[in-house]
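EI: anyone free to look at a 453-residue chain?
SC: sure, send it
EI:
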Amino acid sequence: MLYRKIGVYIEEHFKSNTDKIMILEGARQIGKSYIIREVGKRSFKNFVELNFVEDDERGQLFKEIHSKEDFYLALSMVAGEKLGNFDDTLIFLDEIQHYPQYLTMLKFFREDHRFRFIASGSLFGITLRSTTSIPIGSIIRKEMRQLDFEEFLLANGFGYEAIEEMRRKFVCKESLNEQQHNHVMGLFRRYLLVGGMPDAVNTYLESHNIVKVREVQQSIMALYGVDASKYETDNGKNLLIRRIYDMIPSIMENKKKRIVAKDIRGKQGDRFSRYLDEFEYLVSSGITLDVRAVSNPRFPLSETIQKNLLKLYLNDVGMLTACLYRNNLRPVLDDVNSINLGSVYENVVAGELKSQGHRLFYYDNRHKGEVDFIIDDYNNLSILPIEVKSGKDYRVHNALNNLLATADYNVRSALVLSNEREVKVEGNIIYMPVYYVMFIGVSDDATPENVLF
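SC: here you go
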């Protein structure tokens, strides 16, 4: 059984005094239903699961319901013996976006206090765009992602105590010893191949067979394509969602990894604004991570976004390496000199930062260059630039130097993440091994212990 950190959050929600209904949202196949089922059955005497996609494919008992009375009647038809009261019964509405009227009805379920409710949604961000009556005061939205590197370590037998000691070393800017570093880097490279999709991780743990892992990843990518096609059909649009999604791995191999509008259809003069619906779907569905450009970075970064410059990363690094290298392990495990792993390292860092709660930006300045990532540093009311290096030239970072030299940006420090073991502080640049990215979390507690840089 895979340990998921979000399970603790869900369990604490059930134990709290709030009666708000949690909606767990995220991409398909990341384990939302599994973790709700696991925690729900452990936390309540009675657990009832309703999957609205399955209902639509079968009897459609819940499809045309628009009142709580009709819902309770239908519920008692399929789960009457499992229905107790608010304290002992949890109703799980899976794939709630498939029947959007239930989003509105959540308010009335909450007011009734008849049962506890929780919901999940795979394309929830898309659904919100076309749903006018969302009971904001009655719900708690929580985003879930696939296994991050910390969860992957735990799945591979890595101890909690070891992770906490690594966290302490990160905070104190200390290095692991050579043997420890090699062990963690070995697992990190396997994470680059396997990624964090639960089915892929379980397949790896059971078989250690890259062919079987790749089969899982390919099936998930095919599912994403089917979802995109269905969205286009249902909305009567002739979009290029699948075209852009398939382009992402090759775009990431370019020196500048941003989306260029004219490359999508091979049409000179094409405008970025032509593809806003496609970008919105790819990001809101959770299958890509968006990184927005800023040319004059200041805290908070959301105020300096350049709307027409965008990078897209795949939501899972394992699926990227599946696209780039198929069943060949050597580029990642053997660190082949002729293969540039820059795009792979950037993708995994983007995923880790997103998992830690950060909004993602990158620095793009025509005169000063480009820095891979910039995140808000809430403790210091500043920004934290992050450069990602996969090769031996990790000390070469002219754009980062230019950014740090600009006094107006008020940057206290910057990070360079690489394969190198030793943590080094040179001026206001901190060099760290790439696996320490899993500890760069968002903290609202600005105590001295939490001010890292």
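EI: The first strand starts at residue 21 and ends at 25.
SC: 👍
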